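Notes from hallway chat w/ T.B., transcribed later so I don't forget. T.B. wanted the structure written out for a chain they're using in a teaching module, and asked if we could keep both sequence and structure tokens in one place. Agreed to drop them here.
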Amino acid sequence: MVQKNSDIKSPEGKLGIVIPGLGAVSTTFIAGVMLVRKGIRLPIGSLTQMGKLRVGRGENAKEVSIKDFVPLASLNDLEFAGWDIFEDTVYQSAKNAQVLSNDDLEAVKDEMSKIKPWKAVFNRHFVKKLDGKWVKEAPSYWDLAQMVKDDILRFKEEKKLPRLVMIWCGSTEIYQEMIPGVHDTLENFEKALKSSHPNIAPSMIYAYAAIDLGLPFANGAPNLCTDIPALWELADKRRVPMCGKDFKTGQTFMKTLLAPGLKSRMLGMRGWYSTNILGNRDGEVLDDPDSFKTKEVSKLSVLEQILQPDDYPELYKDFYHKVTINYYPPRGDNKEGWDNIDIFGWLGYPMQIKVNFLCRDSILAAPIVLDLVIFLDLASRASLAGNQEWLSFYWKSPMHAPNELPEHDIFVQLMRLKNTLRWFMDEPPVTYLGSETYN
């Protein structure tokens, strides 16, 4: 763990949340916060709002609410803005997404209708299935980045915001790999922006603008974005926290729950077949093979790390892992994930597990968005910078240092997160080395 500044700045004043992509996930998040603030709904699924951890030892041990334990921004202090390729207000976009009921949306209609998207940075090469017209035009990608900065600074001034966070809720871009001479150093990246290099994606332009202004940044999609050396260099230079990537919501969430359990009991596995159907904008985007490959790589990385087949060849050597996503418009945002898991137990006798998760994609993602912006603001006020691996709990494909492996076991991730919160407050970490029980 890096050295912590002993003084965490107080979360005074408003916190601005700026979001590229005002679609189903972000409008569900914004509407949800507004409904919670009015006392109409509960923030279910949010660790920052409903989670607890244990502090102290022996007779002094007690369960405390996370939001009372660490100095977090209040939901009442959040202000929202963002960009989209469609001109609809946040209220109109939420109506189009058909995630929340009319009763819920009508209760916050006035507030949501006031949030109108700024023109977006968009390049159809990276998202072939969408074609909005509410798009910025500029001579170069560098100029587009400056326009994004102008939007942020104008919002900051209008709302009198001492702090802001950016979180990418836009669509999945096509698959890319890091290119030397473009993504490897900050100097090369800025040259590539000025020359509008074809391998600079819109998400990278947003991330560059945010980090260069000192805003913490989270990448909610599997895009190649902040996981390039150039933006790590910029985050270190500006002393800005960041994290990513790809919100861990439905099927992958289930994998990080089930796979650690199989491994903990030393049960073998021969194969895991996963398929999804969904009909929202995300499903339409992923109907393009190049965008799907980006998502596929993110989803496939989970089991290999958890099961460690090289260390347990008798149990997991050459297991087969297949992931498919099928666009099915009638399903809307209510994604359905089917999993067939072929396992074996004592003496090698075969068994099967079948999972049918009828989930709501944006309902699972919205509290993740909330927790990430709240925790990134905390990290910034604690003077942390660079990749925040303690937030791996929220990601399908957690970013990690080049010489380390990502952690996918959700229970290990949760322990790391809670121990980091204890560390923020100079509370000893839980190690389970002793006679007392903690969680």
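Follow-up for T.B.: The longest strand covers residues 268-278. Might be a good example for the class.
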